[in-house]
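hiii so my PI (J.) wants the whole complex modelled not just the main chain, which honestly fair. so below is everything: two entries, each one labled with what it is. i double checked the lines twice but i was tired so who knows lol
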Amino acid sequence: MNAPVFQMSNVSIDIGGPRSIMQRIASGINLELHRGRTLALVGESGCGKSVTALSAMNLLSAPLRVSEGSIVLRTEDGPQDIAGLDPSGRQMRAIRGRRIAMIFQDPMTALDPVYTVGDQISEGLRRHLGLSRREAWARAVDLLRLVGIPAPEERAGHYPFQLSGGMRQRVMIAIAIACAPSVLIADEPTTALDVTVQAQILDLLRDLGERLGMATLLITHDLGVVAENADDVIVMYRGHVVEKAGVGALFDNPAHPYTRGLMASLPPADGRRVELTPIPGQVPPITEEIQGCPFAGRCPHVMPRCGERMPALQNLSPEHSVACWLYPAVAEAVA
Amino acid sequence: MSKKGLAGFGILLLVIVAAITAPWISPFDPNAQDIINSLAAPMAEGSEGGIHLLGTDRLGQDVMSRIIYGTRVSLTVAFGAVGVSALIGIPLGLAAGFMSRTVESLVLVATDIVLSIPFILLALVLMSVLGASLTNLIIAFAVVRWAQFARVTYSLSLELREKEYVLSCRAAGISLPRTLAVHVLPNMVGPLMVIATLELAYAILMESGLSFLGLGAPPETPSWGGMLQEGRNELDTAWWLTAAPGLAIMATAIGYNFVGDWIRDRLDPRLQGVLR
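here's the output for the full assembly
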């Protein structure tokens, strides 16, 4: 496989400032994005998914910050460490929207109500690519067509309130892909949509990613979405990556008790009636200091050493790794 | 459009037209004195012909003409004062909402201090120090009322900065100043317009109040507040000297308020269905 276009290595995110106590809310995050492939980031609310996404664009604002690690973006100009750039500086602004674009959760509030969608797509084109108003508008119409909006010439002149939720999310996608970014981050892009529309939007994202050669980071809590749309999966729990695998390996053989718990709480697709097993308890709040594995309190296989140390991610197979003391590979790596 | 809104716009239109066309529609020169015709009652005939529709004052000046010319002071002060307040207050409110915590606290503390001082007192001090002139009236108003704009803008910012499109502007590589000017401010126009019209009414009352206290427009400029002050002494003999400017002030202030209400109702989506 080629070198990843985007790579986060050992990234930790802290909350807190000079006057309050520092608290680590995510640590040791490693992830790579490859052209034309989709990496899904899965976990419950409060697991650090969105923070990871924001850090990928260097969009964290005080009191959150990246305290360790590197976030490298590879472009034709060579690799560049984003984490080292001034978050509001010119260089970073030239990357956002141009090299890395983001799609937000709620299409109802992510579009500015006072401009037509054509204007909003044009804005990025004019600023990043220097197109004229007329050229940008023509591109905007093409983009609307590309994301599957009927009568794009007419729709470009419409305001967000005139469009349905699914249409607005398509517009968001059009804005995101306008400057042909190499990395697309989709933060729960379908949570606010109807199930039927969800599938269309995800198909569109996947199709565009492959056609335009974008690397996609898909953030979701929906394992169904993961199974359908991802190539690789990272499972996060309370700021830690607990499992990392190809989508096939993960669903065939979930290794971490948390991943298994998530799968057990999902109804089977074949319509069999089975008892669903929820994971007891809740994600501990980020303000709580935790010794050892953060999942220990909810884990059915908890062992004494779980409370002592968080295990590191170790390979079970070349494309499957897990951070859990249950596995000899993990335990041996320490001994 | 509601009847109220229509009435408001009607009044304001009348005032604006009067201010522009004052030299042509005034029956007399507003400063021409006619001592023989001092304190003439409304509808009295002038000594050199013409009818004093609203009577004359102690110096025999035509009240109607002075009311008409008074619209100029009224409009200049109102729009000047509110314009300057908005120009100061809105950027500060945005800065408080979108910049660092330090800026936020500084602006909020400043607004609290300014708004905690009784306005008329501060204005009196400023006017007596600066001297009576229209420019100083505008300054005195802006020194205090920028805080109103800053506060409203700040509270709107708190709401807007949570909107995803503001974050998505950042994610699209748009700079903060541009985001504020192009994507945040236009979304505040409605509520700010309402505040502006209410402030216009307030500015008119302030101008009249300060002129009444002798610290507003210079005496030779026909202004409603000044007329009210001069007429006060003849209250028992020449009621028209206070009634005419008093009604003019009231009508204009009401006009601005009606327009403000109308804009607010128009922009409030919850009231949309009811009104149409």
